[in-house]
Design goal:
alpha+beta; 15 strands; binds magnesium ion; single chain; 249 residues; 25% strand
Length: 249
């Protein structure tokens, strides 16, 4: 069932979204060669708690950390730890937080030092595809309009969208109905209505869209070893333009 959020619920989701956005912004300042992913996780966990939030990922289905940190060929669900970031890496950081029982969820891929031109292009295309998906999240459109916009733009640029993981509704649960695939057909899927809150999150591979899961049972990697990027926002469908809950204005 797709829930429509009340004004009070939306107010809590704005706060959750702000905490997530600020956490990502602060993490971005701390990403550089020599930093470990575990240090970033520790910072984020403390920051979320000091802001009055609850880390949404910690212990979620047994996940052992407060952020996902996925480097280079890792797509999503990377477990932060002792890995030291190196010049030329890209790192996708996913952050989730609850505030008064409501969730915000956002992700961003950051460059570490100087990255290749191809990696730059992957980040730019993935970020732009998220914006194009969000533009379609308007009342009266359907879920398939979002995925189709993302997929078309990504594939026109020679990259691929991951099929095995998708975006989602969000609210009292981090993952609610409906699923929000990053691929699809315009005019298909559930119809969007004001009050729906969605996490839209293109995962884009430089090579093919196939992924594999590492022996730690969490970390998702590209099957062909190519780079992968991930950008995500939680948004509110309104009567007009979508409101981005995890962007600092
Ligand atoms: Mg996320
Ligand atoms: Mg998500």
């Amino acid at each position: 069932m797709i829930t429509l959020k009340s004004a009070q619920e939306i107010a809590f989701m704005r706060q959750a979204g702000r905490i997530v956005a600020e956490t990502l912004q602060e993490l971005g300042k701390r990403i550089s060669p020599g930093v470990t992913t575990g240090e970033l996780n520790k910072f984020a966990e403390d920051f979320i708690k000091e802001a009055g939030g609850v880390p949404a990922f910690l212990n979620y289905q047994g996940f052992p950390a407060s952020i996902c940190a996925s480097v280079n060929n890792e797509v999503v669900h990377g477990i932060p730890g002792l890995r030291i970031l190196e010049n030329g890496d890209i790192i996708s950081i996913d952050v989730g937080a609850f505030y008064h029982g409501y969730c915000g969820d956002s992700a961003c891929t950051f460059p570490v030092g100087e990255i290749s031109a191809e990696a730059e292009r992957l980040l730019a295309v993935t970020k732009k595809s998220l914006e194009m998906g969000i533009e379609k999240a308007v009342s009266g459109n359907r879920i398939g309009d979002i995925g189709a916009a993302i997929q078309t733009f990504v594939e026109d640029n020679g990259f691929s969208v991951v099929r095995a993981f998708v975006g989602h509704g969000i609210g009292q649960e981090m993952h609610e109905a409906p699923q929000v695939p990053n691929f699809g057909r315009p005019g298909y899927g559930p119809r969007l209505e004001p009050g729906m809150t969605l996490a839209i999150e293109p995962m884009v591979n430089a090579g093919t869209y196939d992924v594999a899961i590492m022996p730690n049972k969490w970390t998702v990697v590209t099957k062909d070893g190519s780079l992968s990027a991930h950008f995500e926002h939680s948004i509110l469908v309104t009567g007009g333009q979508p409101e981005i809950l995890t962007r600092l204005s």
